[in-house]
Amino acid sequence: MATTDLTAETFETTISSNEIVLVDFWASWCGPCRQFAPVYETASAENTDIVFAKIDTEAEQSLAAAANITSIPTLMAFKDGNLVFAQPGALPAPALAELIEAVRALDVEKAKAEAAAQADA
């Protein structure tokens, strides 16, 4: 599956209507973003059950601001509509593969319950 360009208009629907969505915040002038792009594209082709989305921070400045993007590239992972990972920096292919497997294995409801229990403690 090819990557999908997200906009402010399509962001929420994409996140909420797919089990797993990875989002790459990038810009054309960003060297590390250009280096990460082929790694992200390859992972997209290998993991067709996941939505691989991209947000051009220059074209979607309000969306980047709403997501508190201060450094690019930044990769976010959503599962069942919940943000479960956010990290700036270009990941090497093995690290991206590990992240994908971790997100697949994550039990979101259990993680939310554990976080709530820690907050109450």
Provide a descriptive summary of the structure in words.
- A hairpin with a 2-residue loop joins strand 4 (74-79) and strand 5 (82-88).
- The radius of gyration is 14 Å and the shape is globular.
- The protein is an alpha/beta fold and 121 residues long.
- It has 5 helices and 5 strands, in the order E-H-E-H-E-H-E-E-H-H.
- The protein has one domain: Glutaredoxin (3-Layer(aba) Sandwich), CATH 3.40.30.
- Strands 1-3-2-4-5 form a 5-stranded mixed beta sheet.
- The record marks 31-32 as: Contributes to redox potential value.
In short:
By secondary structure, the protein is of the alpha/beta class.
Strand element count: 5
Shape: globular
- Pick out the low-confidence regions: none
| CATH fold call | Glutaredoxin
CATH architecture: 3-Layer(aba) Sandwich
Let me know the CATH homologous superfamily: Glutaredoxin
Mean pLDDT: 94
Rg over C-alpha atoms, rounded to the nearest angstrom: 14 Å
> What is the total number of structural domains?
1
Highest-level CATH class: Alpha Beta
Q: H/E element string?
A: EHEHEHEEHH
Structural class of the helices, strands and pairings?
Answer: alpha/beta
Keywords: Disulfide bond, Electron transport, Redox-active center, Transport
InterPro entries: Thioredoxin, Thioredoxin-like_sf, Thioredoxin_CS, Thioredoxin_domain
Family: Belongs to the thioredoxin family.
Pfam families: Thioredoxin (PF00085)
